[in-house]
Amino acid sequence: HYDYHDLVRIFFKYGEDKFSKQIARKIEQAREVKPIETTTELAEIIKSAKPAKELKKKGHPAKQIFQAIRIEVNDELGAADESIQQAMNMLALDGRISVITFHSLEDRLTKQLFKEASTVEVPKGLPFIPDDLKPKMELVSRKPILPSAEELAANNRSHSAKLRVARKIHK
Q1: 48, 49, 100, 124 from 7: Cα distances, Å
Q2: Which end of the chain is more exposed for a tag (fewer CB within 10 A), N or C?
Q3: Domain range for residue 31?
Q4: How far from chain centre, in Å, is Cα 55?
Q5: Local confidence pLDDT in tens for the 171 residues of the chain
Q6: CATH number of residue 157's parent domain
Q7: Same-domain pairing of 110 and 31
């Protein structure tokens, strides 16, 4: 069972929720009375921790927190990191890796991994870059590819999708 500080970290880091402390505090208070046994109970506790203004916003007020819990429990970002790294290593020369992300945390991770693999840190003025320091990948496009109006009309859930593509240029 996660303590207050763990909950704040998880809700803020993975749910990007600015009310993480208030939500964690409400969960702690509810636990003192009795264990939280259902997702409905948890959703009500989360709602009670948010100001009225927040509750008027589009989407369920507990959505980000449930996402944060799922990401933590399943180690989704760790698995994504490992999978993308392995895929880049296994690619043949000139092979491409395409990653579709559905939220900012996944996209940030993918962008960071592609950037690390496509840039090199060498001192200025070096006459050449040694083979072992050359970037392994090149970005096919600097910006992510977003769904077209046609795709959005056909598939409403694609609105948050971002496609990033990189090509292997060096072993």
Answers
A1: 16, 14, 28, 44
A2: N
A3: 4-74
A4: 24
A5: 899 999 999 999 999 999 999 999 999 999 999 999 999 999 999 999 999 888 888 889 999 999 999 999 999 999 999 999 999 999 999 999 999 999 999 999 999 999 999 998 887 877 888 888 889 999 999 999 999 999 999 999 999 999 999 999 998
A6: 3.40.50.150
A7: no
